[in-house]
Amino acid sequence: MFAIMNQKIKSLWMGLTALLMGWHTTPAQNSCFFPGDTSRWESRFAMPGITTGTVYSLLPSQDGSLLIGTSTTARFGGDTYLGSIARWDGARYRPLGTGLYGLSGSMTIYAMVEDAAGNVYVGGMFTGATNPGGGVVSSRNIIKWDIASQQWEALALGLNGSVHALAIDGDTLYVGGTFTQTEGGSPIPMSKVGRWRVDTGSWEALGAGVGSTTPGLNGQVHALAIGNGGELFVGGAINQAGGQPAYSIARWTPGSGWDDMSGGLPSFAIDANGVPTGVSSASTVQSLAFHPGTGQLYAGGYFGEYIGSASIALAAWYHSEQLAAFRDLMRKAPGGELLV
After folding, report:
1. Mean of pLDDT values over 153-177
2. Which runs of consecutive H residues, i.e. helices, occur in the chain?
3. Whole-angstrom distance between the N-terminal and C-terminal Cα of the chain?
4. Range of the domain at 278
């Protein structure tokens, strides 16, 4: 069951005290730091910040640095072009190889995740990367930075559509986005979500995947989260999972497959008299955050009752099927603020 509150929510970040924003600030551009112990924003990202681009993805690394994924034209600290991705070590921006490349020079980093060894998986819209020695690595829309060798590595040949969400659970990397299959001569069908087995170096589908049967709803996966039992939560512009109805969110459980999480998070069209007239196709989950301590899953996006526009957009899932006011949920989060 979901507890719900008002507003349109696109991004959630739980349990962290630093935040980097993809909008213009002064004096630094596109980068601003909230330390958590004060009530002010601070710019600590090397004048003039990140210029001529937009920040789409952030990853606090185990070594204390911050990985930053951007759009094509971004320049970090006004310095040499780093190919849409860089590591901020507290004093300067450092490259990962010589960065990524894309068709006609266009690329964007939408998602990053780090495994237990410190290797970084990068997803977005690109065609490959170049290593420090000049070697080209072809891996469309998904690639790995190996921390030991300091080299880019392909995940087979990648995927045929953009990657917007990543989550890792041991030797399994879950990937979500717009893709429908793997790249290469013998493509594996994967509808918007799939997994890369790190131990075998191979792609696997998650049943029939997720998607949309409604015109105007593109079936894209925007967010992934992993629960305490190893289940995968998938949010996006979807209305089906495993071939069955699932409104904007679904759950994949290894061994049992897909379920719609008690009806999911639909949008309900309401007439002038406040009477529901049916489920709308506009329902979309944009962001997910799972709290392992409480077992709660938070979902943000565009869903709920509406007249012309969404009016309910933040929800919390309970395995116990119990509801509580959202302000109480935030108070109960042990040591982990929910940044919205």
Report:
1. 98
2. 326-332
3. 21
4. 1-17+206-340
